[in-house]
Amino acid sequence: MTKVIKLPKHSRATRQNAEKAREALREIDMPHEARAVLDNALYLITDNPGSRVVFTMINNEQFLYVSQKIIDCRNVATTFAVWNVAITCIRQDTGEILATRAQLAEQTKTHPNQVTNAMADLTKIGAIIKEKRGRNVVYKINPHVAWNGGEGARRAAGQAAPRLRLVSNGKTDPVPDHIIDRATEYLSGSDWQTRSKWAKRAVESGADPVPAMTAKPNLALWVRFVAMELVDQGLVDPEL
Hints:
Blueprint: H1 15-26, H2 32-46, E1 57-58, H3 60-70, H4 76-87, H5 101-108, H6 112-125, E2 128-133, E3 136-141, E4 146-147, H7 151-158, E5 167-168, E6 171-172, H8 177-188, H9 192-204, H10 227-232
Antiparallel strand pairs: 1-4, 2-3, 5-6
Helix pairs in contact: 1-2, 2-7, 4-5, 4-6, 5-6
């Protein structure tokens, strides 16, 4: 006869057990990302969801970039309002904006069509990432700008997200020559699709579109606009 094992009425760990687990983890040498994921998991199973205070992390430099870009949008006030409300609606560890267009319109006291325009502008800026999921479209906050959740999950999400760069007087922040050289070498050895992708990112970051932009001889005209992003994604080694 099969032995029946009775499960406890709830699987939520006690705070005391969770603290013991945290103490044990402190003794283990592990990558920061792994430690962040485990700590976040312990938080989720011990904290009472109803009493949880959710904080959203903001990257100061990236947030400043978005704020400066919004000033150039079609409807500055509405775009700022939609952006600020959207940040409060982030799904944990995915960055997905859980509010619908109608809900964003209601909370910002504007028309849904204005929300659509604001979301389109925020997507062009790079603050929001538009993702196709079957027949539906999902909008996510760029994890480099704002995040709610574990650091490990944020870094994983950031692999496919653009890191935004501040622009002053139409020029990107200075990039060391050796990084530009290595970025040029990387792109020169890449296929046309890869060069096309990064050429598009360069234009989004302030580079002037030129004829045959993806041609290797034209790399010098725009490579500096994406060189640091290539470093951030681990595609170019920044060390001398």
